Amino acid sequence: MAVGDRIRRRRRGGFDLRLPENERKLLRSLPEQLRQLLDTEDPSTRRLYPPGYGEDPELEAEYRSLTRDDLTAGRLGSLRVLEETVDAERLDDEQMDAWLHALNDLRLVLGTRLDVSEDPAADEKLLSGAQAELFAIYAYLGWLVEQAVRALAPDVETTAG
Questions:
Q1: Are 20 and 144 in contact (CB under 8 A)?
Q2: How confident is residue 161, by pLDDT bands cut at 50, 70 and 90?
Q3: Which end of the chain has fewer CB within 10 Å, C or N?
Q4: How many separate helices (H) and strands (E) can be counted in the chain?
């Protein structure tokens, strides 16, 4: 575990969360915002529901009618777990998986809203522009997603008891 990491796998199972209060406070505020967006056709959620048949509107409509409710239910479940465990110091495997999904969904929506690209110059503009605070949250969520993925990887060396 690197200095400053917030998530680490425990040798005896589960995961330690080392989140300062200001980060927990931020994470408490985000699920409800995403939950409200999931009830709408907000354009910032488009990456959460990728097209199955982009070239055929009729098939695409059928695909969405068959998949959207299940995808949304999974997302809402992950957000619920994040909300219920945001103050926990330890998570089990199922909770950590839900955290990973919720954090990534939040990151995808923010990235879409910010129009984040692969261009470092564009990201630099976001850092100093009017949406700098949102971009900082996006970057933070990406950092937590990376830590969750590393912690969930089976070959990660564990140091906690």
A1: no
A2: very low
A3: C
A4: 5, 3
